[in-house]
Amino acid sequence: MSQNENTVRLAGVIKESIVDGPGIRMTLFTQGCPHHCKGCHNPETWDFEKGYNGNIEKIFETAKKDPLLQGLTFSGGEPFCQPKPLTKLAKMCHEYGYNIFCYTGYTFEEIISSFDTKPEWKDFLNEIDYLVDGPFILKERSLMLHFRGSKNQRLLDVKKSLQSGKAVEAQGV
Questions:
Q1: pTM of the full structure
Q2: In contact, 21 and 55? CB cutoff 8 Å
Q3: Residue 27, SS3?
Q4: Is there a contact between 40 and 50 (Cβ–Cβ < 8 Å)?
Q5: Is the model's pLDDT at 3 over the cut of 70?
Q6: Among positive and negative, which fits the CA dihedral 162, 131, 104, 85?
Q7: What's the rounded Cα separation, in Å, for the pair 75 and 128?
Q8: How is residue 7 annotated by DSSP?
Q9: Which residues, including other chains, have CB under 8 Å from residue 169's CB and lie 6 or more apart?
């Protein structure tokens, strides 16, 4: 998969979603995922060779045309497999006043422990406002969870988590 910072490999885009984070959001479903969680609701996103290339400038311009959007959500697939283009897109979004919500099959602890070998993960995490972390676990599935699919997953305030060095649950999201 290309790590061109101007192109993200996508499985699809939802221009307005109310289920993928707070408020009305544009949701990008990235293509490619190493986790292969049993019961995944997007198994078609697993194959790194499928999907299509999306230009982040065009994605951003499309988002800006919608006065209802409050932010973008990066879902998957696995967004941390494409940190460079998503970091660039997230920075553009922050400058515009949008927030960034991200789903990952990695835990916050796995991500921060990888900063030495994957510095691009640190750059990406620094541009995320809210993170739902951890793999989907079918036996812990619940339809009653806010923006999460299974009980092991956490909805984290990334800025507070990075400041404290440990996962901090988001409040009021």
A1: 0.96
A2: no
A3: strand
A4: no
A5: no
A6: negative
A7: 12
A8: E
A9: 154, 155, 156, 157
